[in-house]
Amino acid sequence: INSRRSASICAALPSHSSIEADDGWRVVTSPQLPIYASQTSAGELHIRVKVVPGAASERSVGILGDRLKIRVQAPPEDGKANLAVRDLIADALGVANSNVVLVTGGSSPLKTFRLHSIPLRWPDGSRSPPGRS
């Protein structure tokens, strides 16, 4: 999976706020979720996306209403675009593909994916997505 496309998705995914403790350690607090993400009471993360299949490149385009707009090269047939978006999200967050599940929108461009847990560490080892402090 292309690391450049992962970085564009990571930059749009939630970061965690942190506070400086008296002993100098940084303590991770609750995540600051963007408008297109929500956390369930079970600790799962739901990410709402608007998918544009058949695009020339794979990347996050930005926020569209309450959704993250994602372009994928895969066509909208036989679930290929759904799998491409799932792989893109999983790769960006450094989690297994099986940890990202399509919840709604199987045949619609408006989809919701579920992550079983919110990552505290991102692919680069930091506590926030690349490009954020």
Can you walk through the features of this model?
- This protein is of the alpha+beta class and 133 residues long.
- The chain contains 2 helices and 8 strands, in the order αββββββαββ.
- The strands form 2 sheets. Strands 3, 4, 5, 6, 7 and 8 form a 6-stranded mixed β-sheet that branches.
- Helix 1 (3-10) crosses helix 2.
- The longest helix has 14 residues, at 80-93.
- The radius of gyration is 15 Å and the shape is globular.
Radius of gyration: 15 Å
Query: Got a strand count?
Result: 8
Major sheet characteristics:
6 strands, mixed
Assembly type? single chain
Number of helices: 2
Strand content: 25-35%
Tell me the structural class.
alpha+beta
SSE string, helix = H, strand = E?
A: HEEEEEEHEE
Concise synopsis of the structure shown:
With 133 residues, the protein is an alpha+beta fold. The protein is built from 2 helices and 8 strands, in the order αββββββαββ.
Could you name the key traits of this structure?
133 residues; two-stranded antiparallel ribbon
Layout of helices and strands, plus pairs?
Elements: H1 3-10, E1 15-20, E2 26-32, E3 37-39, E4 45-52, E5 59-64, E6 67-71, H2 80-93, E7 100-104, E8 110-115
Parallel strand pairs: 4-6
Antiparallel strand pairs: 1-2, 3-4, 4-8, 5-6, 7-8
Helix pairs in contact: 1-2
